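F.,

This is the one I mentioned.
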């Protein structure tokens, strides 16, 4: 049984639509900064309009629809996740903090032991 995925080739129409969507989004951002002396509502309107036009153009392409399906599936998968309760999350956090504290003490002790051995015992240098 083969588990190879089939990949569709984008047509040049889809590539043009994606490029136009990118241009529209960039135009919205540039317009937002270009209208720096205008009221904030007008600037925000230009930005939202550019992004909305980009979204509509992208939605009409195969790539955009595939992305939308991917986003929907992602949301569906996150709803399947069993999240820990507050108590479980607190316990796990406490265990992590305890482990970090123990590891820090171990590394500090190892460092001081090696420092003592190297400077005092082997080299005979006192600080």
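My design for it:
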């Amino acid at each position: 049984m083969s588990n190879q995925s089939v990949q569709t080739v984008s047509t040049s129409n889809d590539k043009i639509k994606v490029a136009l969507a990118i241009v529209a989004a960039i135009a919205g951002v540039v317009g937002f900064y270009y209208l720096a002396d205008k009221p904030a509502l007008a600037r925000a309107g230009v930005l939202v309009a550019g992004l909305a036009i980009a979204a509509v153009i992208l939605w009409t392409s195969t790539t955009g629809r595939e992305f939308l399906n991917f986003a929907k599936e992602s949301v569906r998968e996150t709803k399947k996740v069993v999240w820990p309760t507050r108590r479980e999350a607190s316990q796990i956090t406490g265990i992590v903090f305890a482990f970090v504290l123990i590891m820090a003490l171990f590394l500090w002790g190892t460092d001081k032991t090696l420092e003592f051995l190297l400077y005092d015992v082997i080299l005979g240098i006192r600080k």
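The longest helix spans residues 86-122.

Talk soon.
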